[in-house]
Amino acid sequence: MVLVSKHRRALVSKIQPPAPSTYAPATAPASPTSATATAHPGRAWTPLAGDWDGNGTATVGLYEPVNSTFFLKNSNGPGMADVVFRFGPVGRVWTPLVGDWDGNGITTVGLFDPATSTFYLRNSNSAGVASVVFRFGPANAGWTPLAGDWNGDHRDTIGLFNPATSTFYLKNSLAGGAADVSARFGPTGKGWKPLMGDWDGNGTDTVGLFDPAASVFYLRNSNSAGVANLSFRFGPANSGWIPLTGNWSGSGLWEYEVEGTPQSPPP
After folding, report:
1. Cα separation of 16 and 171, whole Å?
2. What letter would DSSP give residue 13?
């Protein structure tokens, strides 16, 4: 679940699950931070990144699944969440995702229900009903949702990643139906994590993979089968750290310009 601001080269960062953090938003049941920390260990909060205020810079957020609450920061520094709201049902194992669904330059939230393979997307960062609802992909399949601007039209749409075959299924519209693009990339059965980003700054998001065992990123500049265009190691191996992508643009988070030699992910 990652996001990259449009028309800017994507940078990568990793979020470290640390000791309990030291401040709390007024309504938060635990204490998220916004630089290199997330939330209290064991809370299973999900880190997010998006341009929540439309200023062209990605900042961080957290999703708390027990209460289905989003905590969003408009800067990459310590402090309370700037935006806090509840969206979606509580007590469900739904997956958060973020994107600019309506093309207005502001990243907003969404949820994916794996039991029915249904997406619930909202066009504002506030409580309320979903703005768009549709089903895409097989139910209960263990596939991972993601979002990006796959065709460069300045609107984010969704996709799914099948880890069993290491195949990406991407949609160019917020609707059900067959995938517009499908591409196999990377090895199967390795537990690698799917990513997306505008790695070459051409205005189109493409796919990537993160190998947690070696802490290596494999990024591709087209949504097609083939070798990685960029690969590099960043962060400690086997650490349980979570990768994020975004245009951090001078933030306090760890940043790494995505440069490297084309390399194929190992079989």
Report:
1. 31
2. E
Q: Any long-range contacts for 114-118 (C-beta under 8 Å, 24+ apart)?
A: 114/139, 114/140, 114/141, 114/142, 114/143, 115/139, 115/140, 117/141, 117/143, 117/160
Which pTM does this prediction carry? 0.82
Q: What contacts 51, CB < 8 A, 6 or more positions away?
A: 3, 5, 57, 58, 59, 100, 105, 106, 107, 247
User: Which pLDDT belongs to residue 3?
Assistant: 30
The domain segmentation of the chain, as residue ranges, is 11-257
The CA distance from 33 to 12, in Å, is 18
> What's the Cα-to-Cα distance from 95 to each of 15, 44, 110, 122, rounded to whole Å?
18, 11, 8, 14
pLDDT higher at 136 or 248:
136
Asked if 137 contacts 155 with a C-beta cutoff of 8 angstroms, the reply is no
Least Cα distance to 123 among 104, 96, 149 occurs for: 104
Name 197's bridge partners: 206
